TrEMBL record:
One GO process term, biological-process aspect: negative regulation of bacterial-type flagellum-dependent cell motility
Listed EC numbers: 2.7.7.65
Keywords: Membrane, Signal, Transmembrane, Transmembrane helix
Full protein name: diguanylate cyclase
Gene3D superfamilies: 3.30.70.270, Cobalt-precorrin-4 Transmethylase, Domain 1, Tetratricopeptide repeat domain
Catalysed transformations (reactions): 2 GTP = 3',3'-c-di-GMP + 2 diphosphate
Source organism (scientific name): Luteimonas viscosa
One Gene Ontology cellular component annotation held by this UniProt entry: plasma membrane
Membrane-traversing stretches: 380-400
Length: 842
């Protein structure tokens, strides 16, 4: 009996052992998955290595789950390519739908991170097809789908998918899933430009991810709050959030998040103007990382911050260099975005084609079944065979027609403006070039029309943007009706339209009259309003070099129509228009100190209407001018280190006079006030007038006007004596010590060679030695530099006169000498009712 009991016990032990071992293995696999989900990926890797010795005891499903965790950890560690190839191999195996959806989600994200967009979108579409089999995993793939659609500009679709993911995971009470879904929702709102909403989602994400125990996504949430705070101008708050995020990213070993956070930290330091050296170190390290990873968009953002830092430090040359690098990286990023968008559209198209192919294969299978049946029922063979062929032909015809329609729709969308349904800017130029060449070769007249809606901004302001859109839509329809097949019509941008015709200016004018007669009031949301258009027409006279020049001349005619009162058509070829525009003229305008704030509408009009524009301004003003006048000529190219500036001035004179003698209307833009401390503007105006060419100078805002505002000085209180520093130093000039004395270009004191661009201590000391004749050594002076951008602040550095030689200088630094002593009354002028000596009238 005891032997039987012992045998039973041994049998039970041997039977129970594998069950216990299998349960323990499942616990270990689940623990590894849990560690990976909570972003403790290093510890999960250690558990995987420890479990390697028991690999033979694992089931196929357990091995697949562990391999998935290992590959996910590889991706988190930055080995994206190896991780992607491993995930691709894993997807070739048979597995449950829930696990397959998780793998598809990770594989899609990894492919997107290394910009293998074709594979990313293909995997995403494949994964979405499995959602009905495992709805409990839908939030995983919907979040990834939201992220990818954000990258290709489908922001509304991205927000919809992210919201669906949040709703799905909230219904299941899944803390970890809610953490990830909230992150994707915040990202979608961020890319849609809804910064407040994005910040609110990020704060929910921090709470959910902290509850779920996921340090990486918690850090992502803090980074998101920091980024949104910076977007809304709260940079001190952004700094605090970003520091927390950086510490958590570094602790978790998540490199990509740490580098993104460093950008927010650097931006906060630059905006708050503190610890700029640390900001520069952060940006240079970050730029090196992103260049190694060829992340163009991040490179552009980093270069922009470096440009702002250089501007903050008063280094415009470095700032301009960084801006050029930023523009180059932005162009590359835009090219990447276009490629990504094209890949998305291609995958969408390929997916639809595969669905059509499946439908075709099913039809062929049905046909084969009919043929098998026909062998058994010969009486029906002919009828069923013909019917099958007809069905196949109809299916093929339908599929081909559908494919043709899809291709035609995609092409139409790429060539048309979505609002007006006319051609877009690029297509008008493309078709216009060919039509212009044909007309020129055939000796036929060819005309360009540029038209826009008068006071369009008032339509938007008074009736809303929906009314503005309806006005554009209606005008586009009327233009399409009037032009028809006789020309090329498109929307150039905003409320401006371009029409190209194989016709002369008279026929173009007739067409415009028909268009104006066709315009009628429109009603939007119960409000009825009308509008007029202005137009410029230019006919090719055989001397027009390019289509672009012809359109430009028509655009200039449109400007004349606006200037002459709107609601009219002006022809660039009219003799009257030619007579009203002199063959040659010169206007000199000032850009002010801050171009965007100081330049007036008249100066902008002169810049737009001139045939030739010369610029001698700061880099930011030059970039803004070249944005709407790409042909603007930079006169700064004439300057060089060691070169006599007087020679530079005469070369600039010669360049401007050459265009005037060639019969061109010239606008010369100079920094600040064009007539203050400026040699070239006065000289070229005199030369032009001496040759009988109309020339005038528009007043501008000078640095002196900015100085009074920044220092809070009323020049009427004590009077002002304003001189160039070298002029004061080398001539017998006596300062009025009771009034304000301004010495300009103090950094160049004593430079008679006119070849220096930097300060020299000897010249500054000579200036101070002369001033010590009238002022004590400890007399307070101010070094002043006007702000050139709204984000800058003026330099107002107060110091003693004796310390002037050792200060820091820019070429444009001004020395402000404050009044010394009190005003004394003139005894000869004293009498009844005379104001006190220390309180002058006014």
């Amino acid at each position: 009996m005891r032997r039987l009991i012992l045998l039973a016990v041994l049998l039970l032990a041997f039977v129970g052992m594998p069950v216990f071992a299998a349960d323990r293995l499942e616990e270990q696999v689940s623990e590894i998955e849990a560690l990976a989900v909570t972003a403790h990926w290093r510890e999960s890797n250690a558990r995987i290595e420890a479990l390697a010795s028991q690999a033979d005891a694992l089931s196929t499903g357990q091995r697949q789950r562990i391999e998935y965790v290992r590959l996910r950890n590889l991706a988190l560690a930055g080995q994206l390519t190896e991780a992607m190839e491993g995930l691709a191999a894993l997807l070739e195996q048979e597995m449950p739908a829930a696990l397959r959806i998780r793998i598809y989600g990770t594989a899609t994200s990894v492919a997107a991170n290394i910009e293998d967009w074709s594979r990313a979108f293909t995997w995403l579409n494949e994964g979405l097809s499995y959602l009905p089999e495992a709805p409990e995993q839908s939030h995983t793939l919907l979040g990834t789908a939201s992220y990818l659609h954000t990258l290709v500009g489908e922001t509304e679709k991205a927000r919809d998918m992210a919201l669906r993911a949040v709703q799905a995971v909230e219904a299941r009470d899944d803390p970890r899933g809610l953490c990830v879904a909230l992150s994707e929702m915040a990202l979608a709102e961020d890319h849609a430009g809804n910064f407040r909403a994005a910040e609110a989602w990020r704060r929910r994400q921090i709470e959910a991810c902290t509850h779920a125990g996921d340090p990486v996504f918690t850090a992502v949430g803090r980074y998101g709050v920091a980024k949104m705070a910076a977007k809304q101008g709260r940079h001190d708050e952004a700094w605090g959030w970003a520091r927390q995020a950086l510490a958590e990213f570094e602790a978790a070993g998540y490199a990509a998040g740490a580098w993104s956070t460093r950008l927010v930290l650097a931006e906060s330091l630059i905006v708050s103007n503190r610890d700029l050296d640390h900001a520069r170190a952060l940006l240079l390290d970050t730029l090196r990382y992103y260049r190694e990873h060829e992340s163009n968009l991040a490179i552009a953002e980093t270069e922009h911050l470096l440009a702002r830092l250089a501007e903050r430090r008063g280094d415009p040359a470095t700032a301009l260099a960084h801006l050029k690098q930023a523009m180059s990286a932005s162009a590359a990023a835009e090219a990447d975005a276009r490629a990504r968008r094209l890949t998305y559209l291609q995958v969408e198209f390929d997916t639809r084609m595969k669905e059509q192919q499946i439908a075709l294969l099913e039809a062929e299978r049905e046909l084969a079944a009919l043929q098998v049946t026909a062998t058994q029922r010969r009486q029906w063979l002919l009828i069923l065979g013909i019917a099958g062929l007809l069905i196949t032909a109809l299916l093929l015809s339908g599929l081909l027609r559908r494919s043709f329609r899809e291709r035609r729709r995609y092409r139409w969308q790429s060539e048309r403006d979505s609002l007006t349904r006319l051609y877009n800017y690029q297509q008008v130029r493309k078709l216009g070039e060919a039509a212009f060449a044909r007309a020129r070769a055939g000796g036929r007249p060819f005309s360009a029309i540029v038209a826009d809606i008068d006071l369009f901004k008032q339509v938007n302001d008074s009736h809303g943007h929906a009314a503005g859109d309806e006005a554009l839509r209606s005008l586009g329809a009327w233009i399409g009706e009037v032009v028809g097949e006789r020309g090329i019509a498109g929307r150039s941008g905003g409320d401006e339209f371009t029409i190209l015709l194989d016709a002369d200016a008279a026929e173009a004018g007739t067409l415009l009259q028909r268009l104006r007669d066709r315009i009628e009031p429109i009603t939007v949301f119960g409000q009825t309003f009308g509008f007029n258009i202005s137009a410029g027409v230019c006919q090719d006279d055989g001397g027009t070099a390019t289509l672009e020049q012809l359109i430009h001349d028509a655009d200039q005619a449109l400007y004349r129509a606006k200037r002459d009162g709107r609601g009219r058509v002006v022809c660039a070829n009219d003799a009257a228009a030619a007579a009203s525009a002199p063959a040659a003229s010169l206007v000199v305008v000032g850009s002010g100190i801050e171009f965007g704030r100081h330049v007036n509408e008249r100066c902008l009009s002169e810049i737009r209407e001139a045939q030739v524009v010369f610029c001698l301004t700061d880099p930011f003003a030059l970039a803004m001018i070249q944005n709407f006048r790409p042909d603007a000529i930079n006169l700064g190219a004439y300057y060089a280190d060691g070169k006599d500036r007087r020679q530079t001035y005469r070369e600039i004179d010669a360049a401007i006079m050459a265009q005037l003698r060639d019969g061109k209307r010239v606008c010369a833009v100079f920094y600040g006030h064009p007539g203050v401390f400026a040699d070239v503007p006065h000289a070229v105006v005199r030369k032009a007038r001496a040759e009988g060419i109309p020339a005038r100078m528009e007043p501008g805002i000078s640095a002196e006007a900015c100085l009074y505002a920044d220092l809070g000085i009323d020049p009427g209180r004590r009077g002002v004596q304003s001189m160039e520093a070298t002029h004061f130093l080398h001539y017998d000039r006596v300062p009025d010590t009771c009034g304000l004395v301004l010495l300009w270009q103090v950094a160049l004191s004593g430079d008679l060679s006119c070849s220096r661009f930097h300060a020299e201590r000897e010249g500054l000391q000579a200036l101070v030695d002369k001033l010590l004749r009238w002022y004590p050594a400890d007399h307070e002076v101010i070094l002043y530099e006007a702000a050139r951008l709204p984000i800058e602040t003026a330099r107002l550095e107060r110091l003693a006169l004796r310390d002037v030689p050792d200060a820091r200088y820019e070429e444009y630094t001004t020395l402000v000498i404050l009044p010394l002593g009190e005003l004394r009354g003139d005894p000869a002028a004293q009498g009844p009712g005379t104001a006190p000596a220390d309180d002058p009238p006014g």
